[in-house]
Write a structure and sequence with these properties.
The chain is mainly alpha-helical. The protein contains 24 helices and five strands. It is globular, with a radius of gyration of 26 Å.
Length: 586
């Protein structure tokens, strides 16, 4: 009797185990099928995105961005979310569980963006759809005659794309949903640069100046003529139409207010942006307070460096000294680029001591394009199109050299190149075991938090070799702390542009030109500036937790693998991953 009961219980347990395993398998199968379907949908809907991630089936197309298209996409994504919510999250494994959470977040954010109609503002003070389009010669594969045909088809499609964007921006004008006018001075230059009289002088003509060997010589004249015709008949008129709209309608009609709170449903919109860009459930008031605390802490460290160099004046006088002494500025654009390249190469040599896994993709150092430079940030990382022949690029702004101090260049280089954005983004794209959407996802709190953490990591790597470079790193950290104060001040507390600029100028050694361009960036891109410091604080907090818990068993190279090899994730997910790593390592 006992054996029979025991055997029965064993069979029941085995049956229950099989059922559970089958349920897990079914949940994972459903999730994978849904993710594959949604991925295919996004590639089809955004051909430029498809090209960027290495799928070239739609290289002859541009996105459809009309209001009806936005509504149609929102309906499909709403359906995806309903199907996702029917999958039992508890039955998924660790990797699939993270994918579930990230996909849910991605869908909810897309639906929120549609509800707020953010597509009616496709530009900000230093970027826009027209700037992204001008990168087409670099971002598309152009190696065969077929590639050239696709490229020319996209050039021909530009007027429709422009007209749809203009229609969206007109709708934004009608309801007061625009970029603040004060941030757009000089913006016309980013459009006018492409209104040329001679197609051969256009950046879009670059692929026709010389042809790769795979293009038959007999085809080259025909393709060159077709390409230059497309530039003259479609691209230049498209940019001219957009320039006319900007100068005649948008700039005169853009709002005079600054804060996101002044937009339609602005309070709810900024609350959403805070959550989106930090991935945390925090209020603007609480973030403002964190920023004030960080500013006070960093100021104390800055004062120590000021004392170390023996400066006798006050803090304001020290900042003036840093902004005006010629020793801190490159004499030529090439000098600045060479210094940036040297710093990047120095850091390359330090990476093996800090990272177990490094990306295969290299990166280059290049100047910010001339048409963008006056309104652009000091530097930026431009990721490489997947599967192509291009590297990633660390862009350095060589415009107005007396606003590009050398003492901040080490921190800028570490943030934008390695171990910052290039290392993190390129490594994520190489994680073949992750679903495609996770390999290319970018969550600002993680990515920008990692970039700021990378600046701090330069201390361990010995990259700050004199007090002024250390002060430069501190001024960059202070800059990100000030962002918490300024962004919430502007968008939730009624700060003025002058108030924001004075706060940045009084607390950082940024040049006054950068103070203005950065302030305009925060005004025109609410919430994004919060990502840097909030993300860095969380990553450093998690590292301290792991160091304390593991003691001598802590390995910084292992820690960095844990942080990076799952791609970009929300900060609460990252916290869970690090805690699991600590539990396994103890």
């Amino acid at each position: 009797m006992t054996r029979t009961v025991g055997l029965g219980l064993l069979l029941l347990a085995m049956t229950a185990g099989v059922v559970r395993a089958q349920a897990r398998s079914n949940a994972a199968t459903e999730l994978h099928a849904l993710l594959t379907e949604a991925w295919e949908f996004e590639l089809l809907e955004n051909p430029l995105f498809a090209t960027n991630v290495g799928d070239h089936r739609y290289d002859d197309r541009l996105p459809m961005v009309g209001a009806d298209d936005e509504a149609r996409r929102a309906a499909v994504r709403r359906g995806f979310l309903e199907r996702l919510e029917r999958i039992d999250r508890a039955r998924l494994g660790e990797v699939d569980g993270v994918s579930y959470d990230m996909f849910a977040r991605q869908l909810n954010d897309a639906l929120a963006e549609f509800a707020f109609r953010t597509y009616e503002m496709p530009i900000n003070s230093d970027w826009g759809f027209h700037i992204g389009f001008a990168r087409l010669p670099d971002d598309m594969p152009i190696a065969t005659a077929g590639d050239y045909e696709n490229y020319i088809a996209r050039l021909r499609a530009f007027p429709r794309y422009v007209n749809q964007q203009i229609a969206a921006m007109r709708a934004g004008l009608e309801r007061g949903f625009t970029v603040p006018r004060v941030t757009l001075d000089g913006y016309e230059a980013t459009i006018a640069a492409h209104v040329v009289d001679d197609a051969a002088q256009s950046v879009f003509d670059t692929p026709f100046a010389s042809f790769p060997s795979a293009v038959p010589p007999a085809e080259r004249d025909r393709l060159r003529a077709a390409g230059r015709s497309a530039i003259a008949e479609a691209v230049v008129p498209g940019y001219r139409t957009f320039l006319d709209f900007m100068t005649r309608e948008y700039l005169p009609g853009a709002r005079s207010t600054l804060g996101a709170s002044e937009l339609p449903d602005g309070g709810a919109y900024y609350t959403y942006l805070v959550r989106r860009f930090t991935t945390l459930d925090l209020t603007p008031d609480s973030i403002h307070a964190i920023g004030l605390h960080e500013v006070e802490r960093i100021r104390a460290e800055m004062m120590e460096v000021m004392s170390e160099v023996g400066f006798s004046g006050d803090f304001a006088a020290f900042l003036t000294f840093l902004r005006t002494d010629p020793r801190f500025y490159a004499k030529t654009p090439d000098d600045l680029l060479k210094e940036a390249a040297y710093l990047a190469k120095r850091m390359d040599g330090e990476l093996p001591a800090l990272f177990k896994t490094l990306p295969r993709l290299p990166y280059g150092v290049a100047p910010v394009p001339q048409a963008l430079a006056p309104k652009f940030t000091a530097g930026r990382y431009i990721e490489a199109p997947a599967g192509g022949s291009q590297p990633g690029y660390y862009w350095v702004n060589t415009y107005q050299l007396d606003s590009r101090p050398l003492y901040t260049l080490p921190a800028l280089t570490l943030h934008e190149a390695v171990p910052g954005h290039h290392l993190q983004i390129a490594l994520a794209r190489e994680q073949e075991e992750l679903p495609p959407f996770r390999r290319v996802a970018y969550i600002d709190a993680f990515g920008e938090g990692w970039g700021l953490y990378a600046e701090w990591l330069g201390i361990e790597a010995g990259m700050y070799t004199d007090p002024y470079a250390r002060f430069g790193r501190l001024t960059y950290e202070m800059w990100r702390a000030c962002r918490l104060v300024v962004d919430t001040g502007l968008h939730a507390m009624g700060w003025t542009r002058r108030q924001a600029m004075d706060y940045l100028a009084g607390n950082t050694a940024l040049s006054l030109h950068e103070v203005q361009t950065e302030t305009d960036r925060y005004i025109s891109w609410p919430g994004q500036a919060l990502a840097y410091k909030m993300g860095e604080l969380k990553i450093r907090e998690l590292r301290r937790m792991a160091e304390v818990a593991l003691g001598q068993r802590f390995d910084v190279r292992e820690f960095h693998d844990v942080v990076l090899l799952s791609g970009t994730v929300p900060l609460p997910v990252l916290e869970d991953q690090v805690k699991r790593y600590v539990e396994r390592a103890q």
